[in-house]
Design goal:
211 residues; transmembrane; 9 helices; mainly alpha; transmembrane helix; DedA family protein
């Protein structure tokens, strides 16, 4: 079942909790499709009045900030052995090459890597744990984590919500235009067919013999 179809069957409160939970776990360091779930839920909120986009954005932001903070604490306590363990468990996401790429980003950009990492799938998983492993000062991490989480989650929700509203309105109008065009094409086709039939019938009539 598609994510969007499944979300249609879930109560609004459960959707808020689901979005916050999935994004929180992803931010903590577990590779989950947080962005896909958020986009699907935001699109659903544009089509159903039960799901409030403001509450949805707030829940997504809270999940992002809290999840990253827990990931930071785990990374600070676990250190590099934690990264090695994650590499064994999730080699596609925490392989040596991915860890090295993320670490270079942190060394180059510092707290900005946490902020902009929220908008990149790979860094979004790494940001919290790696910031803790590298012992980034928590106040720097918290500022970047909060701003990145709120802007990413709230911004994604707002953009997808308004795109969904505009798209739905456009599709409704398109359906009316499509119906009108289909009727016109049908009428035109019918007239052309009738005209050709009359012409063929006239040509098929026998020519009267000359006296």
């Amino acid at each position: 079942m598609h994510v969007q179809e499944w979300l249609d069957t879930v109560p609004a409160v459960a959707i808020y909790a689901l979005v916050a939970g999935v994004i929180g776990l992803e931010s903590l360091g577990i590779p989950l499709p947080g962005e896909i779930v958020l986009v699907s839920a935001a699109l659903l909120s544009s089509q159903q009045g039960d799901v409030n986009p403001i509450i949805l954005g707030a829940c997504a932001s809270a999940g992002a900030v809290v999840g990253d903070s827990i990931g930071y604490a785990i990374g600070r306590k676990g250190g590099r052995p934690l990264l090695a363990w994650l590499g064994n468990k999730f080699p596609r996401h925490f392989g040596e090459a991915h860890v090295a790429t993320a670490e270079r980003s942190f060394e180059k950009w510092g707290m900005w890597a946490v902020f902009f990492g929220r908008f990149v799938a790979l860094l979004r998983i790494f940001a919290g744990p790696l910031a803790g492993v590298l012992h980034m000062p928590y106040w720097k991490f918290l500022i970047a984590n909060f701003l990145g989480g709120v802007i990413w989650a709230g911004g994604t929700t707002a953009v997808i919500y308004y795109i969904g509203v505009v798209a739905e309105d456009w599709l409704k109008r398109f359906s009316y235009y499509g119906l009108a065009a289909a009727v016109l094409i049908g009428l035109a086709s019918m007239l052309i067919v009738r005209r050709k039939a009359k012409k063929a019938a006239a040509e098929a009539q026998p020519v009267p013999a000359a006296e």
